[in-house]
Amino acid sequence: MSEFREITMARPDDFHVHLRSGTMMQEVVRLTRPWRRALVMPNLEKPILTAEDALRYHDEIERAKRTHGVDFEPLMTIQITKDTSSDIIHRARIDGKVLAGKVYPRGLTTNSEFGVVDYPKELYSTLLTMEETGMVLSLHGEKPGTFSLDRERAFLETLSWIIEHFPRLKIVLEHITTAASVGFVMHGPPTLAATITPHHLYLTLDDVIGTTLRPHNFCKPIAKYPHDLRALRSALTSGNPRFFAGTDSAPHSRERKECDHGCAGIFSAPTALSLYLDAFEEEDAFLIASPFLNEYGARFYGLPPIPDQRWIQLQKKTWNVREMETRCGVKIFTANEMGDVHWNVLAS
Ligand code: NCD
Ligand code: ZN
Questions:
Q1: Crossing angle, helix 272-282 and helix 226-236, to 10 degrees?
Q2: Does residue 219's CB lie within 6 angstroms of at least one atom of ligand 1?
Q3: How confident is the model at residue 244 (pLDDT cuts 50, 70, 90)?
Q4: 136: closest CA among 80, 197, 85, 182?
Q5: Is any atom of ligand 1 closer than 6 Å to the C-beta of 110?
Q6: Which residue range is the domain that position 281 belongs to?
Q7: Measured distance CA(70)–CA(294) in Å, rounded
Q8: What is the pLDDT of residues 14-67, one digit of tens each?
Q9: Quick one: which of 298, 328, 83, 291 has its CA closest to 172?
Q10: Residue 152 lies in a domain
Q11: Where is the binding site for Zn(2+), in residues?
Q12: 46 C-alpha vs ligand 1 centroid, how far in Å?
């Protein structure tokens, strides 16, 4: 374990976040502070499907940011469905400044009814246009129709097909949860990368269903075996630039989590950065933390370096998220029962 008490680094980027809309967005944006940029997912109840949708959503986020004095830059996505035409992709790239197109597995996660089941049949020409236009393919890698614990592994076959047919398409396998995915990305082409969430660095399936049912630890893809967790931590600390931060912070009200048919999603916006740092520290790999958080993802997405990059200063000091949680009504993810978090933003 390192003896770091204070660190200063370039502000981090979150390459996978759910900001929602309306009242929920107000709370979420208010609590989404330390990030320089955030790639915003499109799975709203009425999904973001076109350049126009993305621009409207971007405006809503900007308004919420102004209200709460928050200054991350939102990077936009659209959801790719079987009806996404070539024209939609071109316009999203040019008019909507959309960076990535996200594909969901139909019916497997929050607002995924427009998801895809059969990639070759439903998405062949769409993926060609994405490849041509440089739109990054962002994948929720689970295969519909397979047993829940096997879905991510089964999806790797689909992923192989995509890589084989679209060799220039940049692909991000989001929120990976298995040793199989870690191995696949490690040995994959330079066009393939993966995001790792903070919660998957702490949870196994036992933390969801091992004793009592823990709905606030329930997310998709669900946390898996201890050996998968170890593989994720080794990917995290490998210094391989094709693994980078994407929190998948996904808020749902308590009522929608603590019920029959509870929603999948873990809200980590206020604690994610601290949890990543703790994991790096626990693994004695603190020097990889900064590039994982602020360099590898930007490089993969081809984002230009920002000349006036601001710095963030963090101090090791325990604080408790419970009060914050009561105010916003959404359970905030921490790695321990008390709600203690160890790293604190001093200045940004
Ligand atoms: C996400 C959500 O709630 O929008 N939920 C989740 O469990 N990760 C959707 C998603 O990314 O699958
Ligand atoms: Zn997500």
A1: 90
A2: yes
A3: very high
A4: 80
A5: yes
A6: 6-347
A7: 18
A8: 999 999 999 999 999 999 989 999 999 999 999 999 999 999 999 999 999 999
A9: 298
A10: yes
A11: 16, 18, 102, 140, 175, 248
A12: 15
Other CB atoms within 10 A of residue 313 CB:
13
**Could you give the number of structural domains in the chain?**
1
3-state secondary structure of 107: coil
Mean pLDDT rounded to a whole number for the chain: 95
The whole-model pTM stands at 0.97
Using CA atoms, how far residue 214 sits from 128, 163, 333, in Å, is 41, 36, 12
Q: How do strand 243-245 and strand 311-320 relate by DSSP bridges?
A: unpaired
DSSP 347: E
Using a 6 Å cutoff on CB, does residue 220 contact ligand 1?
yes
Q: How many Å apart are CA 190 and CA 302, to the nearest integer?
A: 13
What average pLDDT does range 108-115 have in this prediction?
94
Is residue 148 situated within a structural domain? yes
**Cα 217 from Cα 209, distance rounded (Å):** 9
Distance CA 42, CA 325 (A): 25
Task: Tell me what pLDDT residue 1 has.
Answer: 57
The arithmetic mean of pLDDT across residues 113-136, rounded, is 97
- With beta carbons less than 8 A apart as the criterion, state whether 135 and 90 touch: no
Can you tell me whether residue 36 is helix, strand or coil?
Answer: coil
Q: How far is the CA of 246 from the centre of ligand 2 (A)?
A: 9
Q: Is 139 within the bounds of a domain?
A: yes
Question: Is residue 10 scored above 70 in pLDDT?
Answer: yes
> Which pLDDT does position 2 carry in this prediction?
65
Instruction: Report the CATH number at residue 263.
Output: 3.20.20.140
Nearest to 135 by CA among 168, 87, 81, 99: 99
Distance CA 226, CA 204 (A): 6
In a domain, 1, yes or no: no
Distance CA 15, CA 298 (A): 9
Residue whose entry in the numeric block shows the structure tokens 């990889």: 288
Q: In the β-sheet with 171-173, what is the strand arrangement from edge to edge?
A: 13-17, 37-40, 73-79, 98-103, 136-139, 171-173, 192-196, 243-245
